[in-house]
């Protein structure tokens, strides 16, 4: 290769090393800089494509000056408690232990329900939520109704928190959080949860345009109120805000009902958790129960725990029951009931209808930037980076989210290597082409060649 080619290759490789080292050192730089407060907001059941279907002027204003991620792949099962705990731990449900709305732990011989979740931290202690890590780093935190935030996980609640009460309005939750932020400058992380549009989606179904329009207008008005409060209290330009959700919603129907008692005797099993991912604890022979359930309905798939697909990350925990039933989208699994919700979630997390979105605004984020997709567990390492704290072991990746940040390079190591290899291939091709052309062109120049005269020129006299 020509010397210039080697110099180019060395320069490209040096650039790659420099960018890679810069990425590896980003946490250290962030920790040494002034840390802006961070607010994480979740609107339960906000399906990603609601952004395309409904007018949401306040939300659009929010992300037009910030960033938008069109859809997130959330964790299985796509329910509220597993996904909210994944957002603040970066872990799949099998790793953090909050696996469903109702769980049975055979080791403790106890049952968990969302209705009694706040009374015992033992269900939550398999993971460390980000507010615990922030407080262990010397800062303070605040929470308004976030699932698990009123539990003393690892003997810690957020510094300021509200006991869960669905009757407390969104505005009151916002006023409490902004008041804590203004009064106490040590507060670095705040988390806020709101129940809509999930409640409306369950009651009427996401295909009910009239009711969903009302619910989403309320959500958008709440976002506008949040923005107004942050501005009026001098926080808007100082705080990083992430708005997201836990899952989407799909339409259900009385015509799509799977009743398990029609397939086997109720005395042979205990239904720990219902639709659309049912957890079954056999009381008799496991194989007999499984065989009956596997033939039960064409729109329901039965798995032995050990055979649950790896991509779901839903088998390595004692709280996962021996048999798991997964309904097709829009189908409902019950024991013998005939009632159902017109909208539901919890289905396979590869379904677009189950995906939420993400929008963010603040001094750390780019302006008017858009990404198509990443995983919801990637939000946790992003938040750790923004807060300058070390990550606990997690299933997320900061490299997936770094493009959202104004201070970060969007090129990862694989992309840089591809650019270098591509550049070298182009350079090699051009060098070979130059050599080929040079060897093909005849050499017509004859320096120092003797002047050739016509034969009769020598016989002509110089002077007549």
UniProtKB/TrEMBL annotation:
Keywords: Blood coagulation, Cell membrane, Disulfide bond, Glycoprotein, Hemostasis, Hydrolase, Membrane, Metal-binding, Signal, Transmembrane, Transmembrane helix, Zinc
Keyword Zinc: yes
Pfam families: Phosphodiest (PF01663)
One cellular component term from this protein's GO annotations in UniProt: plasma membrane
Cellular compartments annotated: Cell membrane
MF annotations from Gene Ontology: bis(5'-adenosyl)-triphosphatase activity; metal ion binding
Cofactor entry: Zn(2+)
Record field: catalytic activity: P(1),P(3)-bis(5'-adenosyl) triphosphate + H2O = AMP + ADP + 2 H(+)
EC top class, as a word: hydrolase
Annotated membrane topology: Single-pass type I membrane protein
One GO biological process term: blood coagulation
Major localisation: membrane
Keyword Cytoplasm: no
InterPro entries: Alkaline_phosphatase_core_sf, Phosphodiest/P_Trfase
Record EC number: 3.6.1.29
Signal peptide start-end: 1-22
Membrane-crossing segments per the record: 413-437
Homology family: Belongs to the nucleotide pyrophosphatase/phosphodiesterase family.
Reported function: Hydrolyzes extracellular Ap3A into AMP and ADP, and Ap4A into AMP and ATP. Ap3A and Ap4A are diadenosine polyphosphates thought to induce proliferation of vascular smooth muscle cells. Acts as a procoagulant, mediating platelet aggregation at the site of nascent thrombus via release of ADP from Ap3A and activation of ADP receptors.
Protein known as: bis(5'-adenosyl)-triphosphatase
Source organism (scientific name): Paramormyrops kingsleyae
């Amino acid at each position: 290769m020509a010397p210039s080619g080697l110099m180019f290759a060395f320069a490209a490789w040096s650039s790659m090393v420099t960018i890679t080292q810069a990425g590896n050192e980003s946490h250290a730089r962030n920790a040494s800089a002034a840390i802006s407060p961070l607010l994480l907001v979740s609107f339960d059941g906000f399906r990603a494509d609601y952004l395309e279907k409904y007018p949401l002027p306040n939300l659009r204003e929010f992300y037009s000056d910030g960033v938008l991620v069109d859809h997130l792949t959330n964790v299985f099962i796509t329910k509220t408690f597993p996904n909210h705990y994944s957002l603040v731990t970066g872990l799949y449900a099998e790793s953090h232990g909050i696996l469903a709305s109702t769980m049975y732990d055979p080791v403790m011989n106890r049952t968990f329900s969302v209705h009694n979740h706040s009374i015992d931290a033992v269900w939550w202690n398999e993971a460390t939520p980000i507010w615990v890590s922030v407080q262990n780093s010397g800062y303070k935190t605040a929470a308004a109704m976030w699932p698990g935030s009123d539990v003393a996980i690892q003997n810690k609640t957020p510094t300021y928190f509200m006991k869960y009460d669905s009757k407390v309005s969104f505005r009151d939750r916002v006023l409490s959080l902004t008041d804590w932020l203004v009064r106490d400058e040590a507060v670095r992380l705040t988390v806020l949860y709101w129940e809509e549009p999930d409640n409306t989606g369950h009651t009427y179904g996401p295909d009910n345009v009239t009711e969903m329009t009302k619910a989403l207008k309320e959500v958008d008005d709440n976002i506008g109120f949040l923005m107004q409060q942050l501005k009026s209290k001098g926080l808007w330009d100082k705080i990083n805000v992430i708005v997201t959700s836990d899952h989407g919603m799909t339409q259900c129907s009385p015509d799509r009902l799977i009743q398990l008692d029609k397939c086997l005797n109720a005395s042979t099993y205990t239904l720990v958790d219902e639709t659309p991912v049912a957890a079954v604890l056999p009381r008799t022979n496991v194989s007999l129960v499984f065989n009956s359930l596997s033939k039960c309905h064409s729109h329901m798939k039965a798995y032995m725990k050990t055979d649950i697909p790896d991509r779901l990350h839903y088998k390595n925990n004692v709280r996962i029951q021996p048999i798991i039933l997964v309904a097709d989208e829009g189908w409902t699994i019950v024991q013998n009931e005939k009632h159902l919700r017109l909208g539901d979630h919890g289905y396979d997390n590869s379904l677009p209808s189950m995906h939420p979105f993400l929008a963010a605004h603040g001094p750390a984020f780019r302006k008017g930037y858009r990404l198509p997709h990443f995983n919801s567990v990637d939000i946790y390492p992003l938040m750790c980076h923004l807060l300058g704290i070390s990550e606990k072991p997690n299933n997320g990746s900061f490299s997936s989210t770094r493009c959202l940040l104004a201070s970060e390079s969007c090129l990862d190591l694989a992309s840089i290597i591809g650019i270098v290899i591509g550049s070298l291939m182009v350079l090699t091709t051009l060098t070979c082409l130059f050599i080929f052309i040079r060897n093909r062109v005849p050499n017509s120049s004859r320096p120092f060649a003797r002047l050739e005269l016509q034969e009769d020129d020598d016989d002509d006299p110089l002077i007549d």
